[in-house]
Each structure stands twice: as structure tokens, then as C-alpha cells.
Amino acid sequence: MADENEKSGLARRIQLRSADRSMSRATASNKRQQKDYVAIMVEHLRDNGQLICISDDRGFLETLREIVTGTLKMPASCLYVSSRADMVAKLSRQAVERGKAPLVLIEQQLNGRDLTFVVRVLKNAFPELKIMMLVREADRSRFVLLHESGVDACIVRPLDGDTLLEKMALTIRPNEQVERSLEWARTLLEKGEYLQALQNCTQALEKQSGSASILIMMGDIFKAMKEYEKSADAYRKACGSSGLYLEPLNKLAELYAERGDTAKQIEYLEKMDELSPLNLDRKIRIGELSLKLHQPDKAKKAFDQAMKLTKRQAGENVSCVAYRVADLYMEADPLMAASFLQRGLDARREFWSQEDIATFNRLGLILRRSGKWREAADEYLKAITVSPNDENLHYNLAMAYLEGKELEQARASTLKAMALNPDLPKKSSRIAANLAAVFMSTNDKMHALPLLRQALEQDPENEQAKELMAKVDNADAQEGRQGS
Fold first, then answer.
1. pTM over 0.85
2. What's the confidence (pLDDT) of residue 333?
């Protein structure tokens, strides 16, 4: 019996040393084996896969269609596209009922609405869905919240077709070899065969250096073996390999909770909160544990943050409803739609951000089309407090002032827009002509003439530019006659 125990102890020590060596070589880079992304996507689509895209981005949709029908040589019927957010649940349900395995690509912002709330609804209804969120900016806090909500991957645009293909393939099928190793290690862990499970992970880590998922599994095994320091070390190394850090940090918080170390538990909960500050339950938990440690100031700070976040989330919920109602009114009663857009923005007033700029622009356009240039200008001015260096906002403000005959203010906003982006007139002949119209309204031919030439160069049939150019020519001719 002594020999058996000695052998068992020796095997344990050998395996622990082997695991230590593998973990010490773990790097911050999560290397992936090279895959044939085309083959992965083709196989997925042939095996009842389905792509569903909810977007109004024509450029992105064209890239996606080219991937499906051009690169993958698959029929167009593999891809369903809609610009209506309310279609995503219907399309997903229909696909699942037909035995399909949908990959859903959905805009975070569509028609001025934040669709983050849709993710939880979809994941609760259809856990088998793979969801990719299309975003315009790399907002880390939002990314982390999206992942916590069930998003499998985020796509930041613009991006090329090859990158999009790679991201879709890796979302559908992560590293298969690692997944198989983890599945087997999980089975061994459940059976209590800890050394074999650890050996399996060690071998996998040799092939996939720095894999956060393998390191997390090793941490779970060490914890089951009551090797708590090694467990914590594995989770910490996983933090260095995981792009969003949350799962290993959560494992560390749970580990210290089980060990009764509340201070350490709070430490890792706070690290999670730094990365994902939009999680309400976690803030309340931090406050609760701080009270337990007789730290009233820290507890109050956490609870205050929770209350502020609650108000923010309530505002977002109100705004989402308001924007949905606005969509319903848009065709029949634009002014009613505008009133609901304003109510939605008012509900978020304390938390306006870049996400709201599209809604401000949309509201301003409706008001201008309805002859309410002053109200439109007010909305653009609110948006400029959020994004003061957005040339499009200053351009739109200039157009509102021009419509209201506030010519000097229109000129000032135009100069500001062009200072922020000297290439603004190159965007389109219409924009160049509109900018010229502002300068012509204040008899500033020096600024107007180059813009008119540029507008006509881009579109020789631009009627507005031709009319304004004729006015310049007439004015020059009249000045010539007077001079003679």
C-alpha cells in the first residue's frame, strides 16, 4: 500500500511539474492553427447552415453576397437579408424550424435604434444561434457587455472580404482540436480522473500555446485537486491570453469566494467591472460584499453606480420603445415620428454618446423636410455637444441655418465643417453645391467658385451648381459693364 501511495504521489508530482512547464511557456498571444476558412463555410452551408443578415449597410451586404455567391460558390438562397430589426426573430425561428443552423449578423445600431437588447431575446429563444454583432466603433465596454449577453463575435467595420470570411468561419467552427481536447478533459474531470485530465490539457497546451480555454480548464482541474495556488495561477495566465478577460477573472472571483477570501473576491469582481461596467448585478454584488467587510464608502459607491446604471438602462429601454414607435409613424406621419425620436433622445439625455448621433441626424432631417429648420438646428446643436468634431453635424447645421435665412450662422457652420474635413466637398457633387450655396448667399464668390467647379466636375448635370455658376458669370459680366 505504501508503494502504491508513493507511486501515486510520484505520478501526481510528475504531472504537476509537466503542467507547470507548459503553463510557463504560455504567451499572451492566442495562436490559431491555419484553417481553410472557405472549406469551413462551404461545409457549414451545405450541412443545412444558414446566414441571416439584418443590416442597411449596402457596402457590407454587397461584400457578404460576394463571399456567398462568389468566393464560396454557394446559391444566393443561403443568405437572408433584411433591413428591419423586427425580422430577425422571425427569420431565425423559420430557419431553426427547417432544421437549419443559422449564423446571424445583426447591426448594433439600425435606423437610430440600439439593438443590443435583441441579442438576449434571440439567445434565450434560440440557444443554438451563433450571433455576430456589426459595430462601427471598437468600444471595449460595449464589446464586453455584448459577449456577456450572448454575442459570439463582434465585427468592426470597415473590413475586407477575407477578414469577414475568417471571422464567420471561426465563429461557426472554433479550433476543433482544442475543442476536442477540452471536451475529453471535461469528461475526465467529471469522472474524477484528474491526472489524466491534466495530462490531456498539458499536451493540448503544447500545441496551442497560450490558449485561454485550456488554461481555464487546467485551473478547474487544479481546483478539484485542491491545488488552489496552481488553480489561481492558471486562471491568471488565462487572463493574459483571453482578449476580454472576463471568464478567467470570474473563475478567480469564484475560487476566492469558495475559499472565503472576500477581499480577493471583490478585487476580481472590480477588475471585471472595469472591463464591463454595464453589468448591474455585479455592481450590487460588489456593494453587498463591501458591506460584509465593513467598508461602507466602497459599498455606497458601488450602489450609487448601480442606481445610475439602472437609470441609464431604463432610459435605453424607453428610447428603444420610442424609436420603434417612430419607425411605425415614419411613412404616415413624419412629425409624429419626430416627436417620438425626441422623446427617445430625451430619455437618454444624461447618457448621450456617439451611438445617438445617427438619431439626431435622422430627427434633424425630418424636421427640415417639414419646414422646422429652427427645431432641426436645435437638435444638431445638441448632437454637437456630444461630437464636436463631426463635420457632418456642422454641415447639416449649416443647411438648417441656410433654410432659415440665418446666413452668417450658416456660413460659420460651413467654414467649421470644411475646417474639420477639407475633403468634405469631395463626398458628392450635391454636398459641394450645397456648400457653395451657403457662400453665394453671403456674396462670398471666392469660396463659392472652387466648390462649384468641383461640383460640376463630379457631376456636369448638377442643376443647382449650374444655376449658381450662371449667377457668378452674370455677376462678373455686370461688374465688367459697370467697370467700363
1. no
2. 93
